[in-house]
Amino acid sequence: MHPKRNEENRLKAIVAMDLTEAPEIGNNTKIYTVLNKKNKKWANNHKGVGVHFIKTPSYIAFGDKAMSTFVHKAMKIDTEFNNMLQFVYFAHMTAFYISNAEYDEVIFENQMLCEKVLLQFGNDETYGDKTEIF
């Protein structure tokens, strides 16, 4: 914990691709999420919350659709990972943003996202003991 910040002034970050299960948000919380209709609606219902939307480039979305079609139809493999390129892009961009900030706690949507973000830009050293999964 930062020595100058008391419990109520601690800076937190929430990293989630889907905000529907997000925990209660305090005033000192920054949210990193994917730009989509569901998350925009969530943000509109939580005015005053600092939300940083990460827009997925069209070439990433196209690549995800092409890869998903190939895996499901050509290879006949059933998998739950339909947006893997979007996941990797989102994790990379979020890792960059939190590496340039100083948070007292980072809360992740799931363990896989946590690991992917912490592996980049030295975030494991900075936030390794400051993480939580919701």
Helix content: 40-55%
Q: How many strands, what sense, and barrel or not for the largest sheet?
A: 5 strands, parallel
Structural class: alpha/beta
- The number of helical runs is 5
Low-confidence stretches: none
Strand portion, in percent?
15-25%
Radius of gyration equals 16 Å
| Average pLDDT number | 90
Quaternary state of this entry equals single chain
C-alpha end-to-end distance: 20 Å
Count of domain modules: 1
Strand order within the widest sheet?
Answer: 3-2-1-4-5
Description:
The chain is an alpha/beta fold and 134 residues long. It has one domain. The protein has five helices and five strands, in the order E-E-H-E-H-H-E-H-H-E. Helix 1 links the parallel strand 2 and strand 3. Helix 3 crosses helix 4.
Give a summary of the structure in a few sentences.
With 134 residues, the protein is an alpha/beta fold.
Write the topology of this structure.
Elements: E1 12-15, E2 29-34, H1 37-45, E3 50-54, H2 58-74, H3 84-99, E4 105-108, H4 111-118, H5 123-127, E5 131-133
Parallel strand pairs: 1-2, 1-4, 2-3, 4-5
List keywords for this structure.
134 residues, alpha/beta, five-stranded parallel sheet, 5 helices, 5 strands, 41% helix, globular
